[in-house]
Amino acid sequence: MSGGSSEMSALSDSGFEEDLHTSPAAASSARLTSDLHECDYEESCFIIQRHNELQFLAQNCLARQPQITAEARSKLVSWLIAVHRQLKLSFESCCLAVNIMDRFLITTSVAADCFQLLGVTSLLIATKQVEVYSPRITQLLSLCCNTFSREQLCNLECLILLRLNFRLAAPTLAFFLDYFTSRTTGCQTDEAMDKMVITQDKHVWKEHEKKWKWLACKVCELSLADYTFNKYMPSVIVLCAMKVAKDLLKNSVQPTDNDAGSSQTLESLCFQEFPTFEAQLLFQQCTVDLKLLVSLNQDAVQDFIAL
């Protein structure tokens, strides 16, 4: 009886709500529990995901992979990004799929000819977590030119779930991007709207904010496919991507008082998340790496800004 109870406990720990009670770090943190009682649902989710970031970080996931290189990973993730767009899936599904894939690579050696199967299987698992309707297995296999069988995909799906101990609710770039952009634009919207008199200015400001969010998402996409950024936590990458996106738009849009207010709000949010000197150094290093990544993909970014 005790063995069955123990097994059920291990298999049921699949959501971040349960992580609050089951993980040793969370159980020993009275301050975390106290903070959650004082927050609304959205902020509570953020606090829990921030608390879990390090546990789900797939750092050096290729260290024990003799056949999988950083270049091969970059090609597969870029392909998954294209697939998620083709299937009209959310960015959350794409980010979660990459996290599932990377964490599996830490646990199990994968042959080069099975790497694409790992990618689509991870995407299937992610969509079952996130989407209302997940893609059909036949649809995913057809994207791989039917190189793999349904049985192979289902067997790998079971193996992934066992290797990850059914822990699938990972903090992702998409989660923090949604949260931080809503915090920055949300905090400034009421104040900015009160100052706006001309309807055209309001429209221009809204379009600028929309372009900023989409550009930040584009920068996050680029980082998702680059193995260099596996060492950074998602929240760090997102805030740096938001800053890089702001800097990129400075040259394409005439600055206004509203933009200045937006920058100040973003700066205060960054300072809130990186209060220590060490944290600020990490933020600066990630920002430098993102700027380099953007410069290497200048054509794609410039085309996006021009839209």
Written description of the protein model:
The protein is an all-alpha fold. The protein has 16 helices and no strands. The protein has helices spanning 2-12, 16-22, 24-27, 30-37, 41-56, 70-86, 91-107, 115-130, 137-143, 150-163, 173-195, 199-224, 234-250, 257-273, 277-296, 298-306. It is globular.
Please give the structural blueprint.
Layout: H1 2-12, H2 16-22, H3 24-27, H4 30-37, H5 41-56, H6 70-86, H7 91-107, H8 115-130, H9 137-143, H10 150-163, H11 173-195, H12 199-224, H13 234-250, H14 257-273, H15 277-296, H16 298-306
Helix pairs in contact: 2-5, 4-5, 6-7, 6-8, 7-8, 8-10, 11-12, 11-13, 11-14, 12-13, 13-14, 13-15
Give a concise summary:
This protein has 307 residues and is mainly alpha-helical. It has helices spanning 2-12, 16-22, 24-27, 30-37, 41-56, 70-86, 91-107, 115-130, 137-143, 150-163, 173-195, 199-224, 234-250, 257-273, 277-296, 298-306.
What Rg do the Cα atoms give?
Answer: 21 Å
- How many strand elements? 0
* Category by helix and strand content: mainly alpha
Individual helix count? 16
Note the main attributes of this structure.
307 residues; mainly alpha; 16 helices; globular; disordered N terminus
